[in-house]
Amino acid sequence: MKNRPFRERLGFALTGLATGWRRERSFRNQTGMAALALLALIVLRPAPAWWAIVAITTALVLALELLNSALEAVIDLLHPSIHPEVKAAKDMLAGAVLAISIAALLVAGAMTVDTLPRRLAELGLIGA
Ligand SMILES: Nc1ncnc2c1ncn2[C@@H]1O[C@H](COP(=O)(O)OP(=O)(O)OP(=O)(O)O)[C@@H](O)[C@H]1O
């Protein structure tokens, strides 16, 4: 199964995204938040650096959510019964998602504070 052509590996990756979407409500919620972030970028028109920061943060949230789900699936397959080590592993995975989600909220707040007043002034909604 190693060294498959790029087209095939891209297909596996897209299938993985579709599986995450189908099976995980958290991933669907995070995708909705990513769509809102894109809308905010389009409306606020921040500097290019903000586009990069938001893109990286959003991708990290989605990637960690998928990793969380993938590892949970493997853990449940290998060890379906209750075990304190399974609890520790799953709680740490949840902690990783929480950490990047807090970072994403901070990025959203900082971008809004940095950009919104100028954008409102551009639209004539507040004095420049
Ligand atoms: N086999 C297990 N043994 C011990 N504790 C478990 C086990 N499975 C789950 N838990 C505990 O229950 C919590 C929730 O587990 P679950 O598998 O439902 O993950 P979840 O975070 O709700 O799933 P998702 O990320 O898909 O929303 C875990 O964080 C862990 O504390």
UniProtKB/TrEMBL annotation:
* Protein name as annotated: Diacylglycerol kinase
Q: Name one GO biological process term.
A: phospholipid biosynthetic process
Note one Pfam family from the annotation. DAGK_prokar
Q: Which residues cross the membrane?
A: 27-44, 92-113
What topology does it adopt in the membrane? Multi-pass membrane protein
- Binding sites annotated in the UniProt record for substrate: E65
What GO terms are given for molecular function?
ATP binding; kinase activity; metal ion binding
Coiled-coil blocks: none
Q: How is the cofactor bound?
A: Mn(2+), Zn(2+), Cd(2+) and Co(2+) support activity to lesser extents.
Chain residues that bind a divalent metal cation: E24, E72
Q: Which organism is it from?
A: Stakelama tenebrarum
Family classification: Belongs to the bacterial diacylglycerol kinase family.
User: Which keywords does the record carry?
Assistant: ATP-binding, Cell membrane, Kinase, Lipid biosynthesis, Lipid metabolism, Magnesium, Membrane, Metal-binding, Nucleotide-binding, Phospholipid biosynthesis, Phospholipid metabolism, Transferase, Transmembrane, Transmembrane helix
Residues bound to ATP = E24, E72, K90, D91
